[in-house]
């Protein structure tokens, strides 16, 4: 560690540039993981059949008023057919079945529209925020028996209110800035540099992105401002609460002339850990059996 400090002392500008680049790259990696493990990212993969490989893409999040697309993308083996078995999650509904048809299927995710050709089905839109579908997709080759792509595990898809871009993009951008500052603060502490202004930049941007803009996005999506502690169990809300607690602890231990680099390391580790918790665990969910919801006004 002393060698790193000596290097940074001899080449401060070069070291700062390298550390900022590393912080940005790590933040991009964390955001990519969060995106792909969250419900807004389609369940996507390949399934092998006796007639060849089938690529599937199942949407797991949609806006109220838009049908839920469940797709097998081209090329689809000749003679293959598919059916979707579905019902509303936490309801007393019987299972319904919908055959998959050949065609083009268009969907929009975070303002970007994509069109997929192949076989697919479109489930009717649910009409309450945080209402969910559970479904299975069965495919059958010309000479085989129907088989579920996900085995005995259903796929879950949640509905939400539309979140306007002017609310969503600033939230994502400021959270990205906060994460970058947090990682960069840890790097600066490692070289025993001037990390205090970075520490406060982390805290201020986290307050703006997670505790001001985040509830605004949540209100559009589910009609509530906060669904974490003490009002609920949404880990998306709770994990930023935990992260903030450790950054505030670091700020307290580094107040005035005090310097406590270990508190910075701890806050950075906690931040990375909470970012690797998949998005929306124990999140908003409507129960059709009771007509009430968790983290939603329905």
Rg of Cα set:
23 Å
Strand content: 25-35%
Poorly predicted segments = none
Q: What overall geometry do the principal axes of the alpha carbons give?
A: elongated
Mean pLDDT, to the nearest integer, reads 88
Largest sheet: 6 strands, mixed
User: What's the count of strands?
Assistant: 13
The ordered string of helix (H) and strand (E) elements is: HHEEEEEEEEEEEHHHHEE
Category from helices, strands and their pairing: alpha+beta
What is the tally of helical segments?
A: 6
Distance between the termini: 53 Å
Q: What percent of the residues sit in helical stretches (DSSP H or I)?
A: 40-55%
Q: How many structural domains can be distinguished in the coordinates?
A: 2
Q: What can you see in these coordinates?
A:
The chain has 298 residues and is α+β, with helices and mostly antiparallel strands. It has two domains: 2-37 and 164-294; 43-160, Immunoglobulins (Immunoglobulin-like), CATH 2.60.40.10. It has six helices and 13 strands. It has helices at residues 2-10, 12-37, 165-190, 196-222, 235-253, 261-275, and strands spanning 43-49, 52-58, 61-63, 68-73, 81-88, 96-99, 101-109, 112-123, 132-140, 147-148, 155-160, 285-287, 292-294. Strands 3, 5, 6, 9, 10 and 11 form a six-stranded mixed beta sheet that branches. Strands 1-2-4-8-7 form a five-stranded antiparallel beta sheet, with no helix packed on it. Strands 12-13 form a two-stranded antiparallel sheet. A hairpin with a 6-residue loop joins strand 9 and strand 10. Helix 2 (12-37) packs across helix 3 (165-190) and helix 3 (165-190) packs antiparallel against helix 4 (196-222). The N and C termini lie far apart (53 Å). The model has no long low-confidence stretch (mean pLDDT 88).
């Amino acid at each position: 560690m002393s060698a790193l400090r000596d290097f940074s002392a001899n080449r401060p500008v070069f070291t700062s540039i390298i550390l900022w680049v590393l912080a940005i790259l790590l933040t991009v990696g964390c955001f990519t993981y969060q995106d792909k493990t969250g419900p807004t990212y389609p369940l996507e993969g390949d399934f092998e059949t006796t007639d060849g490989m089938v690529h599937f893409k199942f949407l797991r999040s949609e806006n109220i008023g838009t049908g839920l697309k469940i797709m097998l993308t081209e090329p689809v083996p000749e003679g293959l057919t598919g059916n979707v078995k579905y019902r509303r999650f936490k309801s007393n509904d019987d299972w319904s079945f919908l055959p998959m048809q050949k065609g083009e299927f268009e969907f929009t995710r975070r303002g970007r529209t994509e069109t997929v050709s192949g076989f697919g089905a479109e489930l009717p839109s649910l009409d309450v925020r945080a209402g969910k579908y559970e479904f299975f997709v069965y495919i059958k080759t010309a000479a085989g028996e129907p088989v579920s792509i996900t085995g005995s595990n259903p796929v879950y898809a949640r509905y939400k209110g539309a979140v306007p871009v002017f609310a969503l993009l600033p939230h994502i951008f400021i959270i990205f800035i906060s994460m970058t500052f947090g990682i960069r603060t840890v790097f600066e502490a490692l070289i025993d540099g001037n990390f205090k202004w970075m520490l406060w930049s982390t805290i201020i941007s986290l307050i703006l992105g997670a505790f001001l803009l985040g509830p605004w996005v949540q209100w559009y999506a589910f009609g509530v401002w906060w669904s974490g502690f003490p009002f609920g169990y949404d880990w998306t809300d709770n994990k930023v609460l935990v992260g903030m607690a450790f950054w505030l602890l670091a700020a307290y231990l580094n107040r005035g002339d005090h310097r406590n680099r270990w508190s910075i390391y701890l806050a950075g580790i906690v931040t990375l850990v909470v970012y690797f918790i998949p998005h929306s665990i124990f999140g908003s969910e409507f129960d059709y059996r009771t007509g009430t919801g968790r983290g939603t006004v329905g």
